[in-house]
Structure formats: C-alpha cells, structure tokens
Amino acid sequence: MKHIESIERSHAPRWSPCGERLIYFIRLGDGRGLYSYYWNTNSSYLTVPYATYGSWMLNCDSIAIIDYSDGDSSDLSIYSLRAESRSRLPKIDRHKRGIAVSPNGKSILIARDGYGAYTNVWRTDLDSLDNAQLTTEGGNNPDWSPDGQWIVFTKVDKDNGYLWLMRQDGSEKHQITF
Q1: Can you say whether residue 138 is alpha, beta or left, with left for phi > 0 and alpha for psi between -120 and 50 degrees?
Q2: Cα(118)–Cα(136) distance, rounded to whole angstroms?
C-alpha cells in the first residue's frame, strides 16, 4: 500500500464491518483507485489502483470492487487485502456504478449502465454467478437493509435524485422521498 498525503475528490465511503477503517475511491488523476482510511492512525493509503466503488465482504479481509485495471471496461472482482490479489468474477458488460455486498455475503448488488437511457440495479449471486436485473426504469447506488430483505437505491428524474425501496427480488418498488 502507498501512503497518500493529499486526498481530493473522494467518493462512496464504506465502513468495514469490523469498524477499523473506511474504503472510498478517487476517480481521476495519477492516484485514482480505491483507498483505505485507517481510523486509529488518521491515514489513507491507495489499496487497489484503478478500482472504483467497493463494498466490504463479511470477513473484513476482502472487498468486492469495480475494477478498471484493464482500461476503460470494468470488471467485478473480489480483492483480498491479505494476499493483495484480485479474483475476477465473470465479465458483465457495461460500466458499473455502485456496489453492495449482501448482509449474508452471498450476493452483490451493482448499478450497471443499460442499453437504454437508464442505469439499473442488478443482483449477482456469488455461488452460481447468475445475474438478475432488478430495475428497468433506473437505479443507482444500491444498498441492502441490515436483514437483507430490502434494497434502497437512487432513481434520478430530470436532475433530481429520489430514494426508492424494493424487496431483494425486485418486487414492491416504491418511492420514499419526494
């Protein structure tokens, strides 16, 4: 890990389940990538170069990431902090924007650019690697409820973002902010 003195344009922070650190990403420049912020030492380090959005796995030793290390296309990977290595998941086309590991660690939510005008929420099962599209009319920045039964996401309508909820299977979608 490389110590970075100046941090600018930080995005999408996530606490580790163990509470010892945060991860966040910097989108542009030579230092772009996913960073770890250590609470006890008040310091940040570049952890995964060229990665964006991350979400902690339950063991606090791994992070599900959106990985741009191969250039402009993005991959889903599991990054092991201990081994400092990536395990790539099968390729999913289109850019990903947002990622969240389920409370039981068995699924990942991603927001993925679609073929139409919308970014939509998809769920990937980590055992079978099956993908399920959960929204068709937009969805960004998904996250799980602590019990894993609900998903919150942002839906943008003419420059305004609104929060929506849906069941983990994509049913019962309803807007909660207006």
Answers
A1: left
A2: 8
Distance between CA 25 and CA 57 in Å, rounded? 17
Q: Are 27 and 11 in contact (CB under 8 A)?
A: yes
Which two three-digit tokens encode residue 97? 């924007």
Distance (Å, whole) CA 135 – CA 53? 20
**SS3 state at 97:** strand
| Residue at 109: amino acid letter | L
Q: Please, what's the b/e burial string for 100-138 (b: 16 or more CB within 10 A of its CB; e: otherwise)? A: bbbeebebbbbbbebeeebbbbbbbebeeeebeebbeeb
- Lookup: tokens for 20: 């010892």
Q: Per-residue pLDDT tens for 107-157?
A: 999 998 766 668 899 999 999 989 899 999 999 889 999 999 999 999 988
C-alpha to C-alpha distance for 152 and 168, rounded to whole angstroms:
10
CB 21 within 8 A of CB 36: yes
